Structures are given as structure tokens and as C-alpha cells.
Amino acid sequence: MFNRKQFSTDLFMFRNSKGLSRATAAKEIGINKSTVQTLEENVHEPRISVYYLCVKWMEKQTDFYFN
Questions:
Q1: Helices 33-40 + 22-29 axis angle, to 10
Q2: Threshold 0.90, pTM exceeds
Q3: Could you list the residue range(s) of the whole structural domain that residue 45 is in?
Q4: Helix axes 4-17, 48-57, angle to 10 degrees
Q5: Is the residue at 62 inside a domain?
């Protein structure tokens, strides 16, 4: 099962630890800034391609958020 809440929290915390705005983080990740917002606010699960980009950016293993 996908741990969406932990993914959202980690994405938010990682972005803030780097001192980045959502727009800057989105540019680094390669996604839209509104996507970063919805992911951080835990609105929906990411598409697999977006998930892969985010975990790669956060330097996590791709299976990290799956139990």
C-alpha cells in the first residue's frame, strides 16, 4: 500500500530544507508547481511518472513509500 501521507510530508519537508519555493522545486523536479502543491497537500496520489521524478529528486529508493 502506498503511504501517501508520508510522501506528502517528506516532499514538503525536503523542499523546505532546501529553502525552495514550490515553483523552484517544481522546475528542479520537472513537474508543474500546481502538482507540487497538490502532492504536498495530500490531495491525490501521484502518477507513477511524477512519483518517480519526486523520489529521485528527494534521493529516495523508488519503493520507499510502499509497504
A1: 110
A2: yes
A3: 4-57
A4: 40
A5: no
Phi, psi torsion values for 64, nearest 5 degrees: -55, -40
Q: Is residue 64 part of a domain?
A: no
Q: Quick check: 55 and 65 in contact, CB under 8 A?
A: yes
> Could you read off the pLDDT of 47-60 as tens digits, one per residue?
999 999 999 999 99
Instruction: Look up cell 528542479; give the residue.
Output: 28
Residue 49 cell numbers, joined: 511518472
Number of domains in the chain: 1
The Cα–Cα gap between 13 and 37 comes to 13
Alpha carbon distances (Å) from 43 to 34, 56, 61, 67? 11, 21, 23, 20
